[in-house]
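Contributing new records

If you add data, match the layout below exactly. Sequence lines come first and carry their own label; structure lines follow with theirs. Keep one chain per record. Anything else will be rejected by the validation script.
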Amino acid sequence: MRYLTKLLVCFLYYKNELQVQMLLRSRTLLGGYKS
């Protein structure tokens, strides 16, 4: 059970990191497009 929760936490953290990276990438792309 403990392993499952650890796996879930890792998955959620990885998903969040991915979203942050995508957001930063899109923001930089938009910034580059504007200028």
